Structures are given as C-alpha cells and as structure tokens.
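FORM 7B - TANDEM STRUCTURE REPORT

SECTION 1: FIRST PROTEIN
SEQUENCE AND TOKENS:
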Amino acid sequence: MSKFGLALGGGGARGLAHIGVLKVLENENIKICAITGCSMGAIIGGMYAYYGNVKQVEEFIFDAIKHPKFIELGIDKLSGNNKKPDKNYFEQFFDYVGTRLQALKKLSRLSYFDENATNEIYEIIPDIPVEDLKIKYSAIATDLLSGEEINFTKGNLRDIIKASSAIPGIFPPVRFKDYFLVDGSASESVPAGKVREIGADRVLAVDVMRRIKSVQQPQNVIDILYRAEDITSFHLSDLRLKEADIIIRPPVKHLTWADFDKIEEIISAGELVAKENIIDIKRLVHRNSYLLKIEHHIKKLKGDA
C-alpha cells in the first residue's frame, strides 16, 4: 500500500495555496499518509492533520485572518503591494515613512511583533499532542543557537506551529527546552526529505517560495533584508526539492509573504496547479512501491537526491 506524503513549504500568505492543493487531492480521494510543513506549510498541514478535511481548514484560516488580534497586528502594512489607488502621493509617502519608522524603533527588540501579541494570535491553534492527530504530522523549526534543523514529530501542536512559523525579525523566537527556535525556512524551506522520516514513501512537494528574477534595486535596509532572505530560501529550496518525487509550484511567487488580503486568489492558484498536475500525482500514488524504491536508489547514486 502506498504511503503518500506532502511537503508543504513556507512563504507566508503564499502558503495559503496549500489549501487549494488539498482541495483537489481530497476531491480526487487521494489518501494522505503524512504531512511535514514549514512555516505557513506547518500551519496548513497541522490544521489538516487535526481536522481531517480541507473545508474546516479553510474556515479556520478565514476566521484567523478576520480575527481582531490578527487585524490589530497590521501585517498588511508590511506588504509591498499595499498602495491604494485612491491615495495621493503624499498620503502614500507618509504611510511608507510611518511603517519604516515603526520598524526602526523596534530594531532594538528581537522581533517586530512582541511576544504577548504573538501569543494571543496562536491561542486559536489547538492545544493537543501531535501524536493524537488524524494524519501523521511533523513541522520544521530552526535553532538559532546551534543552527540545528529540528523536525518536530512529537509535542504540542500549538507550540510546534508557533516555532515553525516564527519568521525571523517579524515574530519572536520560541524558547523550547535548550532551543531558541525560529521559522523552519531558515534551514528547510520545503521539507521534502523530512516527510519520509514520518512514514511517507512517495512525496509531493508544494513550493511557494518567491521568485528571485531581477527586481528593482532595494531602496532601504528592510528591502535588502527581505531580498537577501528570498535569495537564500530559493537556493536552499532548490537543493532540498531534489528529494521530492513531484514538485508543484502555484503561481503566487509574485506576491509577498504579507498579502493575506489576496487569500481567495492564492487558494485558487493552488487548486489550478494541482489540477494541472493531477494525472502525474495519481500515477505517483499508484506507483509500485518496489519500483519506486529502485528509482529512488538510482536517483541517489546519480546524486539527484
């Protein structure tokens, strides 16, 4: 019997495309044996492993984005695509300056958002052991102290998701035992290999990392930091994705991590790419396990995995 696994990558709001992918897989009655996620992929994957159906995951995400505490954070102000056409130049300029000044004031702290505000947001995540979830699940986080990549297969779902999605500089690091944890994307942008550790023998990876084709020259320190992170994540994901059997890339790479106002567009993009690749996905699901093992072995010998 095949053990089909999903590797759901990080990318902030772009990761909402995972919901669209799950919709198609569910409609096609494709059984998911295991899910490993990173950042937003950890959130979507964890909630799907908890609920067992994508409808409830979608409702959960919509409710979370409309939550007063989430709105209060003002994440939309950090998006580069938030200029409204009805605002004149001076209004846009003062909005821009205001956001940058807030960021500069917080450079003395460990994160843009403080721990209290962050904790209030994550209270909506179920407080249960991941061992009790309906689907095998794990999430990737990175220890800032040792640089170690941690694949959490046990522990509290809320704490694990919080650690895996703690975007460096945006949300505060999570203290857990001897670890000081941040977003798994710092070490594993699309955890294609890690999902095999929890039982998958064939892997579909969903990559929502931002494209790194030439862009306008960065204008300030914030732009440079974001650009550097995009480049690092791209090359890291390109390397790790070799461990996947199939890679699909929803057309959301033009969006920023903060574009939560485009949720419907992003989910639809996930559905679109999953439908376009559904024949190959079904072939993978039904592939003979013995032949698949041989193919994986050959792939390793050639240095492709």
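SECTION 2: SECOND PROTEIN
SEQUENCE AND TOKENS:
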Amino acid sequence: MSEPIIQVENLERDFGDVKAVRGVSFEIEKGRVVGFIGANGAGKTTTMRMMVTLDVPTSGRIRIAGHDVRENPAAVRQLVGWMPDAYGTYDNMTVLEYLDFYGRAYGFNDEERLRRVRDVMEFTDLAVIADRPMDKLSKGMGQRLCLGRTLIHDPAVLVLDEPAAGLDPKARIEFKNLIRLLASQGKTIFISSHILSELGEMCDHLVFIDAGRIVHHGSTESLVQRDGLTSLIEIRVTGDPEPLYQWIALNSELEIADRMKNGARVRMKDTEPEALSKLLRTLISEQIAVCGFFKVERRLEEAFVDMLRTSPPPLPGQEKLP
C-alpha cells in the first residue's frame, strides 16, 4: 500500500494562551477529495495554513508526499496549490496579466508559461474575459481566477479554504463541477466549507474539527449513520403546527430539530418500530392533527450538530478563536 500523500501527526498550534490546534492527526490517500468542516474559530484555516507552509506548527509534523513542511517548505510549495478564502486584487491588471504574473513567479519560461496560462484559462472558462480588469470581476469569476492561480503550476495537492463562500447558486454549481473535473484528473483535494450538503456530494471523506481537535474522520455515510446519535422523525400536521410544538416541549424524550410551516423534524433517541408506533398513537390520542409521520435520514448539517452535542467539552486552553 502506498504512503498517504498528506500526513498530519499530533499537530499543535498555540497563540499565546489559546490552543488553536490541539493534537490533530489524519492521513489522506492520493486522489481523494476530503472535506474539512468546523465552526468559525474551530482551527480549520490555521491547520490549512500550516499545511501550505504559511504558518509553523508549535509542535507535531505535516508531510506532503513525504516532504516535511517545516524542513523542506520549497518542495511542498511545488506540490501544493493554495486557494485562500480571500485574495487581493490589483488596480490596472487584467485577468491574463494576473495569471501571467504568477506563471513568472513560479519561474516558467515564456513558452511554458504561455501554455500553462492558456490551459488554466480554458479549464476555468476565463479566456472570454482575459482582458477584463481583475478588480471588476463578479464574485464567481473572481473565485475562478483564484482557482486558476492555484492551478498554474499543476500541483498534485489542492488546499482550498471556503472556495464557494458568497457564490450564488449557479456559480456554486459551476465551481462544484470544476472540483469534480479536478478529482477525475487524480488531484488530491482538501477543501473546507460551511456548505455541508455540497461537501457531502463532492467528498470521499470528511474531517471534522472542533475546538482545535478532530472529532470525526470518515465517509459521509459513517457520520450520518453514526451510532449513539439521535435520529429524526418528521411529523406533518394539518392546520396550525403550534399545538404540536407545545406538545413536544412537554415531552422530555423529544426535541425539535427543525420547525416547518406544516410540522417539525424531531430528535428521538429510540426509533425502534415499537417506540415509533407508540409515539404516533399518543399524538393522535392527544388530538394532534397528524397527516404525515416518518423517519428521515439525518442531513449532514444535523449529523454535525448532533456529533458536537455528544463530543466531550474542550480541554482548558482549547477555547475557540474569535
């Protein structure tokens, strides 16, 4: 079995008394698309910055294709493409000039640089706006340009920090298609996002971080079906759902996970058939106008919230960054 292309071992990063990253370890096989998920301040960006040599671990080790990020950062930078959550724009610089600048920064000669810029613009569909000032681009086109910059040296590993943030639905779909194309080319992609449903569709595995520590590493299915987490029951009613809400509030075994205009999704620990049958009979006997009652597959967002509810509290000094 080949060595994982990304290896993170007991990674820690302190900022004074704040433990931003604490004992983080995970491995990623070559060609995988892995989602990195966590709330704001959980340690995602700090971890990713250390992976791409923009920050130095307090302790622990990161290896990219066998190269230690601290001992051999130059080799890592040739292997990794970094797309931050925001990038700077420059006055009086066109899309073509911006990509050409980064091609020069990587040291490519004229012929090789022009070929790479042309290929990247074709892949990201930027050729039609090659002469447009880069500070006049829409959010979606700006993200395409930032991705193009990330790809200019044809890296084996892509580290993308919130690449779909702020995009409209059409731009998100287009960006997701680009990620799928890159994955089909064998790129290893490590991508953070708050749009969990999209990560579930794109990614082979998910890594969840909370208060600087890893709380889950596995497939979407393993999280959604994780033992010990509550299941959801969708209850639909006719008319005003307020009586349902009030009845649930009085039942210690139930908790509203999501209010809907015609009912609610409810957390329930015991979802065996007998328990569900008893709940339905009780609802009807209480004159709740039930017109729909069924068990639903936990959504990724709900599984994430449930997982955090069952995770141990952070250790002293592991408080989240603001």
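SECTION 3: OBSERVATIONS ON SECOND PROTEIN
The two ends are 41 Å apart (CA to CA).
Residues 81 and 154 are 8 Å apart (CA to CA).

SECTION 4: SIGNATURE
Preparer initials: ____
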